[in-house]
Amino acid sequence: MLQNLSKKELADIIQWDIKNWSKCLAFWEDNADLDPSKKVLALGEREGGMSLYFALKGHDVICSDYNPLPDTTKVMHANYGVADKITYQSIDMKAIDLEDASVDVVVFKSVIGALGNKADQEKALQEIYRVLKPGGVFLFAENLEGSKLHQYLRKKFVSWGERWQYVTNVDMNNWNASYQSIKTKPIGVLGLFGRSEKQRKFLAGFDAVLSPITPKKWRYILFGVLKK
Fold first, then answer.
1. Domain ranges, residue 173
2. Fewer CB atoms inside 10 A, N or C side of the chain?
């Protein structure tokens, strides 16, 4: 499935820093059973990218966000012919309005940092675990704290950089506590420094070489597959 995605599909799914962040899809595919007909809860889906990906794969998806989803998201899904696979719901991830053990997959991309503090992040993680079925998987791609340079530039140039609660490796130890199987991968060093998508793509080309040989604490994206 992944190799068959067009450039436009990949752009609509991933949305920014596409070359680095899109690697989450292959990581998830390699480390989780994502055969069709699973029930997927996608959190923080304002633009609807993760929902689009899983609907294209044949899953039934709850596309959710804290705020009502914009019409453009629903139009995009309709244009791809997957509207019948997707339902829409306003969900506060700290208090998910779903029954216990009711979904096979929970997924988000660059979402949990927006909660702004570790206490609320912990509430969200407890809720994710609660709604997952036994054997279900929690998939995520999230912003790591990164190097001191990453931290400085985010505060200086990113409008929400000071409000975002970036994930650390210490946080990850807490996230993992209740799951029976845990697979994570930190990637990316240079891609974040691009000021345009073209620049980010160019810099991400160097990350393919740099990520394996630089300290993990320098990387700015974390992929995860956690099995309940």
1. 2-227
2. N
According to DSSP, residue 3 is labeled G
Phi, psi of 30 (to 5 degrees): -75, -25
Strands of the sheet with 132-143, listed across from one edge: 86-90, 60-65, 39-42, 103-109, 132-143, 221-227, 181-187
CATH of residue 212's domain is 3.40.50.150
Predicted pLDDT of residue 4 = 84
- The tokens describing 43, both together, are 């959190």
Look at residue 78 in the predicted model and tell me its pLDDT: 98
DSSP 97-154: -S-TT-EEEEEEES-GGGG-SHHHHHHHHHHHHHHEEEEEEEEEEEEB---HHHHHHH
Task: Give the integer Cα–Cα distance in Å for 36 and 55.
Answer: 9
The DSSP secondary-structure symbol of 1 reads -
DSSP classification of residue 82: -
> What per-residue confidence (pLDDT) applies to 2?
60
| Contact yes or no for 106/43 (Cβ under 8 A) | yes
- Structural domains of the chain, count: 1
User: For the chain, what is the total number of helices (H) and then of strands (E)?
Assistant: 9, 7
What spatial distance separates the first Cα and last Cα of the chain, rounded to whole Å? 25
Q: Which of 42, 51, 19 has its CA nearest to residue 140?
A: 42
